[in-house]
Structures
1.
Amino acid sequence: MNKIIGIGALNDNTRQFYHEVLDGVLGEGFTIASFNFNKIDRSAIDVDILLMSTPLMINLVRKHLKPSTKIIPIRRTFTNKSFELLKMIDVKERIYLVNNGIDVTFETISSIYSLGFDLELYPFYPGVEPIDEIKVAITTNEVHLIPETVETIYNIGHMVYDVDTILDVLNELSLEPSEREEIIQRYQKTIVTVDRGVSSLIDDNVYVQQEKNTIVNLINEGVIETDNEGHVIMVNEASKKILSATDLMGKSIDEIIPDISRFLGNARYISDQLVKYHHEKLIVSTKPIYVFNQKVGDMIILRNVTEIKRLEDMVRKELSLSGHVAKYTIDEIIGESKLIRRVKSLTEKMAVAQSTILITGESGTGKELFAGAIHNASDRAKFPFLAINCAALPENLVESELFGYETGAFTGAKKEGKIGLFEQAHHGTLFFDEIAELSLGMQSRLLRVLQESEIIRIGSTKIRRVDVRIIAATNRDLHALAREGKFRWDLYYRLNVFPLTVPPLRERREDIPVLFHHFLREFKSDKAIDEGLFEIFQEYTWPGNVRELRNIAEYLAFMSEERITLEGLPYTFRRAISQRGEDLHVGEEKLKILTILKEKLESREKVGRMSLLRALEARGVFVTEREIRRMLEELREENYVQVGVGKQGTRITQEGLKVLSLSL
């Protein structure tokens, strides 16, 4: 008895196409019936072999089949003509792969890749939002689905049965081996043989349905496909989670989401509409699915409003991956002085509030460090910390950096527009360093953001709400600038809600050794340090503050020998300190004396006045014994030398060594 071969599809076009192809492959003498499962009574499916165009139908129709019916999922490949056309595509940019459903779209992409084509393919099917930058598309006779922005189209035609599918059919038929071989050989000449089919990209034993379910369930949005009658024929796990329902297949979408019916049946894409679902609100997008210009169903995308807000926060937080993070905490601010402990205590209190903070202090005191520590101690720590140096950007760039701009807002603007720092810092902190350098015009715009928590991008009329904490810093007197008309009074008072003053290093000298040792560890140096070094540090005024101390530590960590000595200090630093020489009344002749005494100290020799005279003469310095006695007395009064009695001689002191070192 001849077996009846059935072909099942979800629309007439697919059914007719595969019917005609199989009829041409097998030839006369075989009984083939094809079905559109969306239109027939499934109880009428009486076949021996059933080819399924999509595995989605298997569970729907299995109960209507005879137990003996052999189900064969259709696996696809390309015709030789399609393959030759694919080889002609020499495009290095992104390319759409356009098809009428998510399963066949990804199956086609997988097949192209398995053939070895090096193309950057992006899936596009009903319900996917177009990307304007993609200008090239490949499609399998679904030209009408291609976005209007595409400029170049490659139509490679329908995919056909692969050899394995035809073999599965022939093995179920009562054919002579020679007849079966003849059919296969004839068919193989018309198609591309793919040794690695679609399923092999995931697992050799995984069918197309499993692949599709895997792909669709990776999508965080709810994806539902319905037929023309509104019955659900595909649903992903995200949809079940969003709708808090599991038994959705085969149900009417009107029964599931009554408020959605007004959007279905449209001939165009409906984007981001708000619908009610029980006690929640969903954002819904729908798009009709067409095959050969015939509408066969709808694709529905669901998003939960609460989830969207969570994802928005996540996206904004992800911006921190580009470096928008605060690096330090309050505990990591180095210092044990009473003054710095008080500032750290104020910082902790300010962090828990949401008010603006104005940090003042000299250059190099660590104002940005304190700003970052405040951010990390606040409930905004999970979100971005962005810093902008108001003095570093030209006036014409400050506005676009802060507020962003739309596509084509001005000459030289990025084609895709740009998100400004306020939007990037949403829920986080924006630090304005050198705030005094902002122009009065930008001060006015910043004031409005502080008052309204709203921004408008350049070239846009849309108001965007932002939730950003502002911390500003300056080394100038804003109050004085405001009196001079160079800074807005209203902005000054808006910023100065919580004033924080970072003390200069000269007012917290007891922190110098702690900071210096910390910096040496940072530069991985464990060199010994001369005792006199910190005495010099304590006397120095540190105009560059902590930044200058860090620079000195870095220099000594790498440039000094095995021991960090006074002589190893940078020349510029020693020159700055040696300017005190005039106050110390150390002239050239006295320095020569100190140099000789240092040499004698190192060689453990005693030095009297006469030996000093001879040593000075050897260096070209000619003085009388009376003059040398006077200079030694003056050096003794400054505690630079010790003058012994009798033959004890004269010795240089630690203070003398220090002055000599700084004068070299």
2.
Amino acid sequence: MNGKLKKAIALIPGARTTKQFLESRGLNLGSSAVSELPIKRPSERGVPPALDEDALRAAYAASPLSSEPDTFVLYRIIGNDLVPRHAKGQSRANLRFILENEPALEACEKRFVVNKIVDTEEEAFIIELLEVHGYPYLHLPFDHEAYRAVEWDIEGVPPQFAPFSKSYGMLRQVEQDRVVTRLYRDKNNAVMHNNGARNAAFEDGRARAKWVLPFDGNCFLTEKAWTAIREGVRAAPHVPYHIVPMARILDNAELLDPASEPPAEEEPQILFRRDATERFDEVHPYGRRPKVELLWRLGVPGNWDRWPIEPWDSPYPGYAADAGQFRTTGWVARLFSGQGHLEDKTASNTLVTRGEARSEAIVTLIDALDMRFRPSCRRMLVLEDRETSGAIGSEAVEAPLQEALRTAADAALGRGPFSVTDKTSMPPSGILHDYWHPAPYYWPHPLKLPGLAYVRKDGVRVPGTRLYEPLSDKFDRTRLQRLFDDTFVLALAHREFQDTRYAEHAARHVRTWFVDETTRMNPSLNYAQVRRGHDGNRGSSSGIIEMKDLYFFLDAVKLLRHAGAFDEKDNEAFETWLGTYLAWLQTSRQGVGERASRNNHGTYFDLQVGAIALYLRNDRLVRHTLRDSRSRILAQFAGDGRQPEEMTRTTTAHYCAFNLQGWLNLASLADAAGEDLWAFEGSEGQSIGRACEWLLAHIGKEWPYQQIDAFDTDRLYPIYHAYAERFSAADIEAPLPDATAIKPIFDPHDGIRPFWQIR
């Protein structure tokens, strides 16, 4: 097996052999090409300690517990209905079945735990049911205020498996689901937290009985099942833990037959003597082996010993001091979930299907809670909403910038509107409405060797790919930049000066490029950064960055809508265009590849997707994009603030500043969503703030790394002012000008929006 393949395989979870993994993706390597991967499984810990009956009997005989009668307290933990894993209302239906049909259990008190139910109406129904039937309960309410403060478990997923990564794309759907649910772990625990409820039941029960049963809410005990459990415990009271296998039921009514004894082959419940020292691990989340984690510690054998520990899983635990001190005792029924297709014992993939449904249920519930309890996204990304801020017209802009803005807007009045149909060369598709532009750093190979049509010169642009040069008229890149910059400047000028000429011309720009059928661009970048003769003349993933400035352009369109220059009919067509382009970004080969980029291309991909989602009021996608951006911080920044990927380029100063500028804009997106990207910091210190500090330390000094062309050092000033607005001023030796004294317009390649000082 070659080195690259081995390196790729090393990233794969150890649940399967290399051969199985690759063949599942349609790659047949042959038997000689693969080998077994080293895998992590709990069984690797070796044989658990053996049960020392004599020692346990002696210790029990010497304990005051030995003189107490065997009394029991049974808790059922009732939580949220998790659709589609459960049917809606199934928790209440099963509770009603228990209350109306379960027999009295000799020497056992029945109690319940109402655990973090987010649907207040459903919670009220459940509590009413318990009170009508006279059963006591612990109430663990869902705390929505505490929930608001809970963040993603970003570092629970190694960056190479983050949802934007290539390795993530190689995983099966069920594995991808598990990656995502790991990101939700802390939120999951703030909502479900069944291990916390189990421990609460145990602590409450210790003062009530000798034996405590903190069971799942869908557990049902027939008289026959209870007799088996009680007799098993009484036969071995010296053993502090009794493992109770569970029988999965498809029809609750079958339990009404006194002779019923279904096969108990499912993951068991655990019964504790009140002096037992082990507890459930409250960090372990619902949906990923929360009870099994304690079975592992106790050394209880089962299929779970062969379950793989995937790279995003918590490590398997070692054996506890009480390992081996258990007996398997009796059985308990698990009531119907309401989803028959997930309980089919004859289907080979039922366990996997249940896992997929459980992951979907967790994500669906938590996404709904985030939408409910977190503030709605505001609609402006980089500009203030003047309607709410109270600033009026040009009074909000300092005088030094007003003249520059009016001059720039007047110049923009003399340009455009622009269209992709204006270019003087035809894209490879032969369709003039397709955006097209050659790959800027790929030059024709001087030797014209077969298979080597191009040579890459990093940082050196092919003629026609430099903005505004005469040859660029053949392509669309210059016109696209004019569209973004001029529309933004005109819309901003209208907001400040209330001159309708500015808004009307800006609106013409938008309609021409995106709405008018005769001039609009097709909603894709299939031919951005093309190498003729390569890959069927399709564009590359990296071409997507040419649309990087869409984020501030969309703020301009919002200003035009507010001014009445861009009406609802226009906007409806524009939103259709954006929605189609967004779908292309998320599903096309180029889009998937760009999303997986580990450098500035990934940063600006997130900015595009997030900005479009914000405009289209897709708050869920905004939050998911920002979630994955936090994983990018771990991947892109070193603990000291360096950007290792950008430091590999021939123009390191440019790319470090350019990428960081993208992060400042993503931080603005987060602010619009009521989130704080500045506050996120990896365990090694990776953060936007640290990256700013590392770069700003070079202000006023010679850049010590490779930079093959001139670098505009003024580009560091907008970064400084963004940093100083968030934190105290950085410790910089060189004198720093006030923001209004710095030029308002930079080269578009710098990633700084026009009039960056104006909000």
